[in-house]
Amino acid sequence: MEQKEINIDKLVAGDERAFIAFIEYHSSALYHYAFNILHQKECAEEVVSDVFLEVWKHRKKLGKIENIKGWLYRILYNKSISFLRKDSVEYTNLSFDEVEDFTFELVPSQEEKLIGEEKLSILNAAIASLPSKSRQ
Fold first, then answer.
1. Share of the chain above pLDDT 70, in %
2. Distance CA 133, CA 20 (A)
3. Type and span of the H or E element at 43
4. How far apart, in whole angstroms, are the C-alpha atoms of residue 81 and residue 69?
5. pLDDT per position as a tens digit, 54-109
6. Residues 6+ apart with CB under 8 A from 34
7. Quick one: which of 42, 60, 54 has its CA closest to 78?
8. What is the b/e burial string over 15-26, where b = at least 16 CB atoms within 10 angstroms of the residue's CB?
9. For residue 6, what pLDDT is reported?
10. Angle at 18 between CA 78 and CA 12, to 5 degrees
11. What is the pTM of this model?
């Protein structure tokens, strides 16, 4: 029996070490294929992760699959196309008005809060020292 067959048999049985070896063996080629479709590193990594999740879910069927590599590439291709479709739908649902009104509020650090409070107290003290008409 070949080493690959032993690993597949172990993977089918739920051996996590065999699954890790399976991932290490296939991940690079799958990543490059996904990257060629998606043209984005993070997206390709996400799709490859989804493929291995499918493998783990359906590991009991692996012993019956004649061409595992072809099966992996088919899953990867389908997930990549689904990702592109989903991604294009998200972009088409945005209108220019929605993007224009978008604001990103920065969360101040503790130090910035203290400096801001100090500046505010100095400003309030300066305002309090002004004559009443100037204060208004």
1. 79
2. 76
3. helix 41-57
4. 18
5. 999 999 998 898 999 999 999 999 999 999 888 654 544 445 555 455 444 555 66
6. 43, 44, 45, 47, 48, 76, 80
7. 54
8. beebbebbbeeb
9. 54
10. 65
11. 0.59
